[in-house]
Fold this sequence. Notes:
The chain is an alpha+beta fold.
Amino acid sequence: MIMAIVKVKTGKGSLSDIFNYVLDKEKTDDKLIIGKDCMTETAQKEFEFTKKQFGKTDGRTYFHIIQSFSPEDNLSARDVNTLGYNFAEYFEGYQALVVTHINKEHLHNHIIVNSVSFEDGKKLHMEKSDLQAMKNYSNEVCKDYGLSVVETDTRAGKMQKWKKDLVQTAFVALAYSDTKETFIDRMKQHGYSIRWDDGR
């Protein structure tokens, strides 16, 4: 199965922690860091300047999007980085930093999106419908690259979307895990917490 799995996290407070995490030299390479509407070297400062310019330095600070690909995709790190940048273009008017991590078996992008638009100072909000639209856009980007994507049909009688995502993620994680600990770690990388007790 070939697919891109998209997870979204909301961040508050200082940008330093998330930038330090995604830019860790043990996880990425300078050639796999690209800014959308900002320079890679000064992205954090540009995010902060935009917030101060419009007086919106509190509350939600950024959105952290993780776009993961199966090892079976046979994509190069540069391909994944390009896919991440194309996906980031969904957020028109908002600065974004795209960083491809290569320290795991599966290549994945970390996309940090500023919560404040540099064009008009509007705060970025994500409702449930927005999240689905964003995932659909990621699917279209993957299709343009010749990849297959997860079906998004949620009509009555079908498995719920969140459950289908969970099952598919678990299958991929199991396929590349040889211990209980490895499986739990892989699921955590995709945003799932695992409780695994004896007999349960």
